[in-house]
Amino acid sequence: MKRDCSSGSQKRSAFGAGRIVLASLASHGFPSGYQDSRVKRFLSKNGLVILGFTFILSLIALLAVGLTQNKNTPENFKFGIVFDAGSSHTTMYIYKWSAEKVNDTGLVYEIEACKVKGPGISAFASNVQDIPVYLSKCMGRAKELIPKYKHHQTPVYLGATAGMRLLRMENEQSAKRILASVTSFLNSYPFNFRDARIISGSEEGAYGWITINYLLGKLQKKQNSEDPSSRKNESQETYGALDLGGASTQITFVPKDTNISSPIKFMQFRLYGWNYTVYTYSFLCYGQDQALLLKLAKDTVETPSGTLLDPCFHPGYERMVDISDLFNNVCTREYKDLFPFDKLRIQGTGDFLQCQERLHNLFPTTYCRYTSCTFNGVFMPPVHGEFGAFSAYYYTMKFLNLTSDKVTSEDMVIEKMKQYCSRPWKEVNTTYADVKEKYLSEYCFSGTYVLTLLQVYNFTDYWKHIHFMHKINDNAEAGWTLGYMLNLTNMIPAELPQPKPFSRPTYISLMVAFSLVLAIVFILGSIIFHKSSYFQK
Ligand SMILES: Nc1nc2c(ncn2[C@@H]2O[C@H](COP(=O)(O)OP(=O)(O)OP(=O)(O)O)[C@@H](O)[C@H]2O)c(=O)[nH]1
Ligand SMILES: [Ca+2]
């Protein structure tokens, strides 16, 4: 009997309070053996209930803590602003990404592309005072779109490209004044203004290459694939980048043979634990606007007459050009001459083959001191891998309906261009009444220019490897700005981030399981401890 009672009291005596109750009952005059066994029975029954209750409560608490800790808390977003101050116009891009996933790839997306109304910033050389008005609308948009409490930590960059490179060559002081005015204006905002500068052609090419490969997930794919040391050919996976601006054009890719002797230093990148050897070259004056001026200047010199019959414009199209505008330019000034007219009348004839012949004259290819060249004696390894072609490559080919993957050969493009250029201007103008006249009138020229440039790069039998692209995966536009920001905010680590040993669900399950084991061990331990002390009594 004593044994039974004592075994009951062992459970309840796990609680210190049980002993106090026991003592107070004993003082009410009951026979002590009787009292003891009743109290032990009471505690035996209720102690178990209390124990179970506490156990369930602890379990609930544990689960609640775990779930609260791991529930989808609102993500902490970061923002970045980059101005692309191009030769033809300026665009402000706002990027947004999750602060927690900063080292992952493919997670930054563009929330705004604000086109600044007006020309490129190089046009403000003689009226820098107008720059604040020029940029203020897009900055106002940035203030609206980015939450106020994030303003001070949002970096702002402005990168100027070929238009400002040309201005700097012409008049360095003017270029400096423009950048100083931009700097002081952007500094007046509550954002974290970092820099306004002219980026080099190589940077422009390289950041464009980083942007498209980041957005296409080419850098990320490697992250999940084999071990870096086992990889043979990185160029199989990355895309080359073709950017056609208004004043310059860039070609960037990983060549098949990176060991060939090159007069141009290949660029070396280490991204997510992989090394890349990248060829990049920027051709100043070969953006499509400058190329048109170059062509017109050459044509004017070769057949000096006030009227130019131009095969690169539709039949029936006419345009007047000031001779001073044509030759007061770094790209065309070598052709400058005295002409007995100060205006040039352009009359379109719409002949693709003749247009192409004239455009080929802009690309001297006979002279080359290296193993392989593009034009103007510039070294370039043979093109290799897939290519993403964006900016004016895309605008032009999109309009001409030539961006589809079904367009697999250059011949298909030639056929289309022959037919398109020959269409009378009147008909084209009425068919596409909603298209800006500057763009519409030049699609025959720009389509022929794109084709000629790609032929000069040697894409003739390689056409199906060119992919015309604009916004990639709905995330962001192809262009140099995203790559520039990723680099300046250190968002692409050189090394692969160390993977976590457990996935989140495994981690939570393990934590719960171990907590339970601990709780059980603790309870059992307490019971055993109190049982032995009870026996000692
Ligand atoms: N058809 C068409 N052309 C465009 C459009 N936007 C820009 N362009 C023209 O395409 C060419 C290239 O434009 P961008 O890539 O913006 O050139 P940019 O950045 O100003 O010039 P760079 O400083 O040389 O890079 C220019 O001649 C523009 O006038 C568009 O939406 N449609
Ligand atoms: Ca550009």
UniProtKB/TrEMBL annotation:
Its EC number is 3.6.1.5. It is found in: Membrane, Caveola; Membrane. Gene3D superfamilies: 3.30.420.40, Exopolyphosphatase. Domain 2. It comes from the Eukaryota. The chain crosses the membrane at residues 48-67, 507-529. It is a multi-pass membrane protein. Its cofactor is Mg(2+); Ca(2+). It holds the Pfam family GDA1_CD39. Belongs to the GDA1/CD39 NTPase family. Catalyzes the hydrolysis of both di- and triphosphate nucleotides (NDPs and NTPs) and hydrolyze NTPs to nucleotide monophosphates (NMPs) in two distinct successive phosphate-releasing steps, with NDPs as intermediates and participates in the regulation of extracellular levels of nucleotides. By hydrolyzing proinflammatory ATP and platelet-activating ADP to AMP, it blocks platelet aggregation and supports blood flow. This is Ectonucleoside triphosphate diphosphohydrolase 1. It comes from Trichechus manatus latirostris.
